[in-house]
Amino acid sequence: MKLLTLFLLCLTVPLHGGILESWNDTQTRTAIIEFVESVTTPASDAFVPPAQRVAVFDNDGTLWAEKPVYFQLLFAVDRIKAMATDHPEWKTKDPYASVLRGDLKGLAAGGEKTILELIMATHSGMTSDEFEGVVTDWLKTARHPVTGKRYTEMTYQPMMELLDYLRENDFKVFIVSGGGIAFMRPWTEAVYGIPRENVVGSRIASEFEYRDGVPVIVRQPRIAFIDDKQGKPIGIYEHIGRRPIFAAGNSDGDLQMLQWTHAGDGLRFCLYLHHTDAEREWAYDRDSHVGSLDKGLKEAADKGWTVIDMKEDWARVFPE
Amino acid sequence: MKLLTLFLLCLTVPLHGGILESWNDTQTRTAIIEFVESVTTPASDAFVPPAQRVAVFDNDGTLWAEKPVYFQLLFAVDRIKAMATDHPEWKTKDPYASVLRGDLKGLAAGGEKTILELIMATHSGMTSDEFEGVVTDWLKTARHPVTGKRYTEMTYQPMMELLDYLRENDFKVFIVSGGGIAFMRPWTEAVYGIPRENVVGSRIASEFEYRDGVPVIVRQPRIAFIDDKQGKPIGIYEHIGRRPIFAAGNSDGDLQMLQWTHAGDGLRFCLYLHHTDAEREWAYDRDSHVGSLDKGLKEAADKGWTVIDMKEDWARVFPE
């Protein structure tokens, strides 16, 4: 009886039971596991000591969704509405007036300059502690305009399992995102298990001052660093100080990060998430105004990087 | 017999056996232990969860010596000499000519501007990987001009034990130094057990570019961030994203870091190292051109911060 039970168990326990469970058994999943086993097996030629096992992940469109627009922009829109009573002049002044009318198309037409103005109006002018409180409060109640879910429920379950799998194999996991570093840090530990010091992102300038004798850090309306495109390897160099052996992204904004990772010595793993699932999430690549993936797809093919086909490779998209 | 052995053992094992062994049993050592026990005892009102146990340490004069001048400046001097064959014009051009003549006093007279020029000439114009190699090679052979020791042998043994003690109590330990981040990172893990991603420091600008199609990070001759005075809390906010509960320094350049730490909620520990030992190390404070400690001493007394009296509190200064 006992032997039979054991035998049945052997038949039903998959080879890599318990890991990457929301991934279909495709070549993508196999490639990830083969890479991790290669760099963590001491006898392997590709073995990498734990201290050097740095893995970096883009956030928007890689760890959580980014449609219809980056969630941080939706945060800015909600903040404009909340702050409007203190700013009566916004009723007639664009881009604020467009936001207050709910005219997001007019907003999108304004492009990067408009977005930056909204970010500055909502992300600066307060202390570091005050901004942290604002982000935390917003996440508790805000809902995604299409799905009605909380934003932190729109993380990708297979990617959460990938983070866990890498950490179980003594990787140090970092976020390297074009999004605001101070916008992400209040929640990345609870949502992704990534502590705030492992978050790299864009940032505005900050200044140290005394208010009534109390030292505070005050957020300033000036861009200090854009952690996108060429900025990503620079952000990694300045924050982490070590070239990753594993990098994952989903857009051309991640291309330089993947190139720099790929160019290191020894075995490296570069991973693109291709959004191909219009039913369970969104399908987009070259022509999308957020998360455009064009040059990256070509280079991935040229260099043999792994590309996740969301529709084919993932058994599940969001946590249940 | 067994009981007697046990009894004798109880008599000889000190209360905190095995920790902070190079510290004399003074009020300073007691204060450190009381703080750590308070924040790590779950039943304590002052308990702090591990994720929030951030400890920050200045480097020059706090973890290793800084006399006669910052070791990084001695590195720059050695580099000027090594690079001189490629720069014949330096023989007649100051500050390089002073360096090549060994006239360090003339150098010191030039002040901050001169030092910056030497730093730029020796720290920029190469890739990130090349600079790492230069620092690593220098540390293998360079000797301190007064003691003849290797620089990495001029770390403070009691502080190494303090780093260990904090880590054993689930603190996350960071360096927050006015020194160059890229100068420190190649060796902090081996010397202090502090991984490179836990090092915050001053930095020059870096740019991402392709050389023969290979992506590289190139160090630029422009200051990007000075991690000193007001810069220290800003550096902590940007890199770590969490206010420390423990901060240690030795100069007025650390004062804002200690003030910002002190101003947080709950129990905090601010620690100054006062260099009082002219026999075993150096004795200096208010009037020193490196590591000047003046306002800090006054504020430490006003606020009840702990001040290490090197001569009285340390049984040993350097590792043996």
How would the blueprint of this fold be written?
Two copies of one chain form a homodimer.
Chain A: H1 2-12, H2 27-40, E1 54-57, H3 71-83, H4 96-101, H5 104-109, H6 111-123, H7 128-141, H8 157-168, E2 172-180, H9 181-192, E3 199-211, E4 214-225, H10 231-239, E5 246-249, H11 255-262, E6 269-276, E7 283-284, H12 295-303, E8 306-309, H13 310-313
Parallel strand pairs in A: 1-2, 1-5, 2-3, 5-6, 6-8
Antiparallel strand pairs in A: 3-4, 6-7
Helix pairs in contact in A: 3-6, 7-9, 10-11
3D structure, described in words:
The structure is a homodimer of 320-residue chains. The first copy, chain A, is an alpha/beta fold and 320 residues long. Chain A has a domain at 14-67 and 154-313: Rossmann fold (3-Layer(aba) Sandwich), CATH 3.40.50.1000. Chain A has 13 helices and eight strands. The first copy, chain A, has helices at residues 2-12, 27-40, 71-83, 96-101, 104-109, 111-123, 128-141, 157-168, 181-192, 231-239, 255-262, 295-303, 310-313, and strands at 54-57, 172-180, 199-211, 214-225, 246-249, 269-276, 283-284, 306-309. In chain A, strands 1, 2, 3, 4, 5, 6, 7 and 8 form an eight-stranded mixed sheet that branches. In chain A, a hairpin with a 2-residue loop joins strand 3 and strand 4. In chain A, helix 7 crosses helix 9 (181-192) and helix 10 (231-239) crosses helix 11 (255-262). The first copy, chain A, is globular and about 65 Å long. The model of chain A is unreliable at 9-14 (pLDDT under 50).
